[in-house]
Protein backbone atom coordinates (compact mmCIF):
# COMPACT_ATOMS: atom_id res chain seq x y z
CA UNK A 1 0.00 0.00 0.00
CA UNK A 2 2.81 2.43 0.85
CA UNK A 3 4.35 2.12 -2.60
CA UNK A 4 0.98 2.24 -4.33
CA UNK A 5 0.04 5.64 -2.93
CA UNK A 6 3.57 6.92 -2.20
CA UNK A 7 3.31 7.28 1.57
CA UNK A 8 5.23 5.88 4.52
CA UNK A 9 4.11 3.16 6.92
CA UNK A 10 4.01 5.79 9.66
CA UNK A 11 1.59 7.87 7.57
CA UNK A 12 -0.74 4.88 7.26
CA UNK A 13 -0.50 4.25 11.01
CA UNK A 14 -1.14 7.92 11.78
CA UNK A 15 -4.25 8.02 9.59
CA UNK A 16 -5.62 5.04 11.49
CA UNK A 17 -4.62 6.30 14.94
CA UNK A 18 -6.04 9.81 14.56
CA UNK A 19 -9.26 8.47 13.07
CA UNK A 20 -8.94 10.01 9.62
CA UNK A 21 -9.24 6.50 8.17
CA UNK A 22 -11.95 4.51 9.88
CA UNK A 23 -11.72 0.84 10.73
CA UNK A 24 -14.16 -1.19 8.68
CA UNK A 25 -14.29 1.48 5.96
CA UNK A 26 -10.76 2.54 5.06
CA UNK A 27 -9.01 -0.45 6.61
CA UNK A 28 -9.59 -3.75 8.42
CA UNK A 29 -7.52 -6.21 10.40
CA UNK A 30 -6.98 -9.41 8.44
CA UNK A 31 -7.90 -11.25 11.64
CA UNK A 32 -9.88 -9.01 14.02
CA UNK A 33 -8.97 -11.24 16.95
CA UNK A 34 -5.25 -10.91 16.25
CA UNK A 35 -4.18 -7.34 15.50
CA UNK A 36 -0.71 -8.59 14.55
CA UNK A 37 -2.21 -10.47 11.61
CA UNK A 38 -1.87 -7.45 9.34
CA UNK A 39 -4.09 -4.80 7.84
CA UNK A 40 -5.87 -4.57 4.52
CA UNK A 41 -6.68 -1.14 3.12
CA UNK A 42 -9.54 -0.06 0.90
CA UNK A 43 -7.25 1.46 -1.71
CA UNK A 44 -9.99 3.29 -3.58
CA UNK A 45 -11.29 5.07 -0.51
CA UNK A 46 -7.82 5.87 0.81
CA UNK A 47 -6.82 7.39 -2.54
CA UNK A 48 -10.12 9.26 -2.67
CA UNK A 49 -9.46 10.66 0.82
CA UNK A 50 -6.02 11.86 -0.29
CA UNK A 51 -7.49 13.53 -3.37
CA UNK A 52 -10.38 15.20 -1.53
CA UNK A 53 -8.99 15.89 1.92
CA UNK A 54 -9.59 19.62 1.46
CA UNK A 55 -13.29 18.83 0.88
CA UNK A 56 -14.43 16.37 3.55
CA UNK A 57 -18.04 16.50 2.36
CA UNK A 58 -16.98 14.98 -0.97
CA UNK A 59 -15.23 12.11 0.78
CA UNK A 60 -18.16 11.57 3.15
CA UNK A 61 -20.35 11.14 0.07
CA UNK A 62 -17.96 8.50 -1.34
CA UNK A 63 -18.03 6.66 1.99
CA UNK A 64 -21.84 6.70 2.03
CA UNK A 65 -21.93 5.28 -1.50
CA UNK A 66 -19.44 2.58 -0.50
CA UNK A 67 -21.52 1.61 2.54
CA UNK A 68 -24.67 1.51 0.42
CA UNK A 69 -22.87 -0.79 -2.02
CA UNK A 70 -21.92 -3.05 0.90
CA UNK A 71 -25.52 -3.40 1.93
CA UNK A 72 -26.48 -4.22 -1.65
CA UNK A 73 -23.76 -6.86 -1.83
CA UNK A 74 -21.70 -5.37 -4.62
CA UNK A 75 -18.91 -3.69 -2.65
CA UNK A 76 -16.37 -5.98 -4.31
CA UNK A 77 -16.71 -3.86 -7.44
CA UNK A 78 -15.67 -0.78 -5.43
CA UNK A 79 -12.44 -2.09 -3.90
Q: Can you walk me through this structure?
A:
This protein has 79 residues and is mainly alpha-helical. Helix content is 51%, strand content 8%. The chain contains 4 helices and 2 strands; from the N terminus they run ααββαα. The protein has helices at residues 2-5, 9-17, 43-52, 56-72, and strands spanning 27-29, 39-41. The chain has a two-stranded antiparallel sheet. The longest helix is centred in the C-terminal third of the chain and has 17 residues, at 56-72. The protein is globular. It starts with a helix and ends in a 7-residue tail after the last helix.
Write a short abstract of this structure.
The chain is mainly alpha-helical. The chain is 51% helix and 8% strand. The radius of gyration is 13 Å and the shape is globular.
Amino acid sequence: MCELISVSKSFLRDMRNVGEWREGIHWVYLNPENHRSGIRYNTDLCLHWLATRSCPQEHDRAVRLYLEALTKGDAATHQ
